[in-house]
Structure formats: C-alpha cells, structure tokens
C-alpha cells in the first residue's frame, strides 16, 4: 500500500444526506466556506505501513486526542482547488495535477509523509463524483475543494510525526465578489513580513496564515482589504499578498511578477496567467519589483494596472495601495482592461466556454 500503489476507496454513503430541497436552498447564496457537502475523503498514514484506509464517508467531526501533534507544533498543509459546472452540465477540474504536486512539495518542507499524487487526485475525483449535486450552476460559482494533511500522532516530543491524516472536504461557493469585480485596497506592511529566506513561504501551510493574521487585522483597522508583503531581507521588494500572487501591467501591456525566490507561494493561477498572457502576445517577466518602482510607476503611468491572483478570487484588481509613506492609485482606481481580459480568458477555460489548448482540464 506504500508509495505510488493505488488504494481502493471504501465508499460509505451518508445515511442522512441533506435533502434535495434543502441543498438547492443552500446553493442559492452559499458565500465562501460556510456550506459543506455530505461527504469527506480520508486517508491515514503510519510510518512503516504507508498510506492506508482510504475512505469516502459522511462528513463528521474528527475526534482528536488533546496531545495530537498538529495541535501543538502546527505540522499541517493544505490545498485549494475548484470543480466547475461546465456549459454542458459536466464537472471540470482545473490543473488538479499541479495541486497534487504542490501538496507533495509542501509535505516535504514540513517534514511530513508525502501523499502520492495519484491518491490525492483519486480522492478528488471520488469525492466530487459522490457530492456532484453540490456543485452550483450559477455563474462564477463552483465547488471549492480543500484537501489538508495533519500530524495525527499522539506525542508531545519535537520531531516529525510518524502518523498523518489526510482529509478532503468540499464547499459550494458563490462568486467571490457578489456584484462584479471590486478593486481592493492594500496595506503595505512595514511591521510584519510573511516569509523569510529559508522559511516556509513556498509551502502551503496553515502556519503561514496564522502568522499573517495580525498584519491582516492591522490592514483592516486601517481601512484596507488585504496586506501586501515586502521581502524580509531588504523590506523593499514586493513578495505577494497573504494568499494571492501579484502582477504588474506596464504601459506597453506587458506583465511583470515577482520571481519565485523561495519566499513566494508558487501559485497555479500565477502560472496559468503567465501562459495566457504570453498567448495574447504579451511579454511576461519574473523579477524583483521594489515598492519604489511600483509607487513611481503608478504615478508616472509606467504601471497602468496591478492585480492579485489565486484560485479563490481568480483575478482581483488592486485599486489603491496605502503605506506609511502615503498612498497611490493604480490607473483610475477601477478594473483595467488587461486584468479584465485575462480574468475572462481564464474563467472561460475553467467553465468549459473556451477551448483548453493546454490540457489543463479534467472532466468528471
Ligand atoms: C494558495 C496561495 C496562493 C495562490 O495559489 P493558487 O494556486 O493560484 O490558488 C498565493 N499565495 C499564497 C500565500 C497561497 O497560499
């Protein structure tokens, strides 16, 4: 059962699923991360035995001993991806193989047993199939999938755990922004950083998010929506937002995004945008961008748009940037045409409205 060998999922159907009428009511306006499906997938790992006991089972609380390692030392990783209701009524996954690969990389960084990619993908296909009726069909809605892995060993010593639990849950979500694209206001944190060289910035782990909440709270107190982080060494170059990568659009229509320096999460949306922008004939470069370059570029008109990107919100225009040195506006503070166009190209592929020339889509 170890390594890449396949395990069959035992399927235990929920004996008391939500009724079709209740479900339809919940799908009208699900918001984000508040409504959950009837089932979850779980797989266990023990050192020496490998991954075993793969199940699709009724969604339920996870009983846990108070000395379970994850509760103390935060050995935890997660992923985020979506199943989309396509024009023909089928369900599509977008680049799930890239999530599977990144999950392995995150596991390695956190000294956790990596889940074989095929097992990760199988869990996704099986859960989406069992809970397929939970995928909303309203525009820009989707079934958000949240795989995560925790150190489940009951032990207070400080060393990598020898037991892990992988869980996949699913949550129908509405459009991230109800009422259309709204540009966000960012706070440039001068107090906090997100990731340091040698740290965990490139891993998708809950600890990075916990460490960012104080900065997020500060941003909100200052009337901003999100934090944009500067690099930890020079406190000068733009890394990314708390949970989204960033792109700058030049006057010439070309794109720049910070290079993956080990402190930036390698976003799958980021990588997809790079491909789509190049297909539109744009030049895309990965290089450090300083806060001065951004501020001066916005003022001179050299930088005409800036957007953030990630699976949850797709592409989010950035309207205003506030910092201790004052604030600046991107373009007219609205949604620029390059941001809008790239967003449209991406969601059209995700929802099966445009041909996928890249093999990004899996239909379930
Ligand atoms: C998940 C995440 C992103 C976006 O990654 P996608 O694969 O595009 O969803 C960006 N930054 C951070 C810190 C993240 O956790």
Automatic annotation (TrEMBL):
Q: Which GO terms describe its molecular function?
A: branched-chain-amino-acid transaminase activity
Q: What is its EC number?
A: 2.6.1.42
Which CDD domains does this chain map to?
Answer: BCAT_beta_family (cd01557)
PTM-bearing positions, type N6-(pyridoxal phosphate)lysine: 204
Q: Per its UniProt entry, what is the enzyme's top EC class, as one word? A: transferase
Show the InterPro entries listed in the entry.
Answer: Aminotrans_IV (IPR001544), Aminotrans_IV_CS (IPR018300), Aminotransferase-like (IPR036038), B_amino_transII (IPR005786), BCAT-like_C (IPR043132), BCAT-like_N (IPR043131), BCAT_family (IPR033939)
Cofactor(s) the protein requires to work? pyridoxal 5'-phosphate
This protein's pathway reads: Amino-acid biosynthesis; L-leucine biosynthesis; L-leucine from 3-methyl-2-oxobutanoate: step 4/4; Amino-acid biosynthesis; L-isoleucine biosynthesis; L-isoleucine from 2-oxobutanoate: step 4/4; Amino-acid biosynthesis; L-valine biosynthesis; L-valine from pyruvate: step 4/4
Enumerate the UniProt keywords alphabetically: Amino-acid biosynthesis, Aminotransferase, Branched-chain amino acid biosynthesis, Pyridoxal phosphate, Transferase
Q: Does the keyword Amino-acid biosynthesis apply?
A: yes
Q: Spell out the reaction equation it catalyses.
A: L-isoleucine + 2-oxoglutarate = (S)-3-methyl-2-oxopentanoate + L-glutamate; L-valine + 2-oxoglutarate = 3-methyl-2-oxobutanoate + L-glutamate; L-leucine + 2-oxoglutarate = 4-methyl-2-oxopentanoate + L-glutamate
Superkingdom, according to UniProt?
A: Bacteria
Q: Which family does it belong to?
A: Belongs to the class-IV pyridoxal-phosphate-dependent aminotransferase family.
Q: What is this protein called?
A: Branched-chain-amino-acid aminotransferase
**Gene name tied to this protein:** ilvE1
